[in-house]
Design goal:
single chain; about 270 residues; alpha+beta; Immunoglobulin-like; nine-stranded mixed β-sheet; five-stranded antiparallel β-sheet; 3 helices
Length: about 270
């Protein structure tokens, strides 16, 4: 009788002990309160830069294991980062597992808090001057609110987005046009695809054009936005002042977008 009682006690408490000592717990009912997807075609590579920024629901217990799928044609993500603890204010790059199966590659990592970020470069379909980047959310988790943002490359014509991103604004920090739209909620397993088409007669990358701005060259523009240095109504002094203000604004804007990652946590090669 005593032996049976001991065995019964072990069966009840041993799984709980294992779960308690586990470094992270995978939760089948994991839900994202918000998912932001930033799509930057031809930014600093002749490819599509995809930036996923997620906020987990407040019902999630930490630490937690997160698994996200990216296209299998992408050999590895460029950044995988997460909060080390629920009370942390900045996210750090973390170790991850990389497993490909079929058309998807699963990236698995642990998060100690509700925020995470994943970046990767995807191929960009192109035929002549026509470009056709696209993105698919494979429905890894339920999402309460999905925000899509498209950074329009400079000197772009005939832009079309399906589904439409109704809000469009020119950023004061870099003079680029950003198209945004909010969708959802999405259930777990529900996919979401956005397709973009545009034409562009040059191959200059957005980051290179912004670097030229820092060097005192022309201001990067999107569509028909004015180019500093080409307006005859500006005097030389006004041009220099405008360029200086634009450089500072761009640097502050870029810093604010990338400040979420604690870059000093781990050194990594610069984008090429």
């Amino acid at each position: 009788m005593l032996k049976k009682l001991v065995l019964l006690t072990l069966c009840v408490f041993f799984p709980a002990i294992l779960a308690w000592n586990s470094p992270a717990v995978a939760q089948e009912d994991l839900r994202l309160q918000e998912l932001q997807v930033r799509l930057w075609p031809e930014y600093d590579r002749a490819a599509l830069l995809v930036i996923l920024e997620g906020v987990l629901a407040d019902t999630v217990s930490f630490p937690v294991t997160i698994s996200l799928r990216i296209p299998a044609r992408v050999p590895a993500p460029f950044v995988v980062a997460a909060l080390p603890a629920p009370t942390s204010t900045s996210i750090d790059e973390v170790e991850y597992e990389n497993a490909a199966a079929g058309e998807w590659r699963t990236i698995t990592f642990q998060a100690g808090g509700p925020r995470f970020q994943l970046e990767y470069y995807d191929s960009l379909a192109r035929q002549g001057d026509a470009r056709a980047p696209s993105f698919t959310w494979p429905g890894d988790y339920a999402v309460d609110s999905l925000l899509i943002q498209l950074q329009q490359p400079p000197h772009t014509d005939s832009l079309s987005i399906t589904p439409q991103l109704p809000q469009a604004r020119v950023s004061s920090s870099d003079n680029l046009t950003y198209h945004t739209g909010t969708f959802g909620p999405l259930a777990a397993g529900e996919t979401f695809t956005i397709q973009v088409q545009y034409t562009r007669s040059e191959d200059a990358l957005t980051a290179d054009l912004l670097s030229a701005l820092q060097a005192g060259g022309n201001t990067a523009t999107s569509g028909s936005a004015p180019v500093a240095g080409q307006n005859s109504t500006f005097g030389q002094t006004e041009i220099l002042i405008t360029a200086a203000v634009a450089v500072v604004s761009f640097l502050l804007g870029a810093a604010s977008m990338r400040l979420a990652i604690n870059w000093q946590a781990r050194r990594r090669p610069a984008r090429k």
